[in-house]
Amino acid sequence: MKRSIIDPSQLGELTEKVVTIKRVVKVVKGGRNMKFSALVVVGDGNGHVGVGLGKSTEIPDAIRKGKDDAAKHLVTVALDDVASITHDYVGKYGSAEVLLKKSPDGTGIIAGGPARTVCELAGIKNIRTKSLGSNNKQNVVLATIDGLSNLKAPEEVAARRGKSVEDFKG
Question: Is residue 26 a contact partner of residue 35, using CB atoms and an 8 Å limit?
Fold first, then answer.
């Protein structure tokens, strides 16, 4: 997964959403140790989004740790002029796959729960997604992040091929 290093202090206000909180139990000699695991997505609504996992004995501490981890792992999303993605892509993580489809203006966000959260916080307004394979929330979120981070802007592709952007628009 390609992740660009972005300084969170250079971005605007990061919004956070908790995708899932799980209670994790470890059985030890003296009994059971209970901890909480929180999957948190943060984004600025302007093309930057990140995901983090926090674990602690208390729920608020797990959420805080997840938010800090997500802020460290921000990715940049290539958006077009109608706040959609630049092209179709299938993001993969483990056995989870998320199909991301470019949509025209007025479509809105058509996505399942975990993928919807990532798209909303990234600032995407028009997209269609389909979760394929695993429906594990953590893997679906990471597959969505993988897909969004691998999107290419038309300017980037044109520069790499030595052509102009107009050559790609049909």
Answer: yes
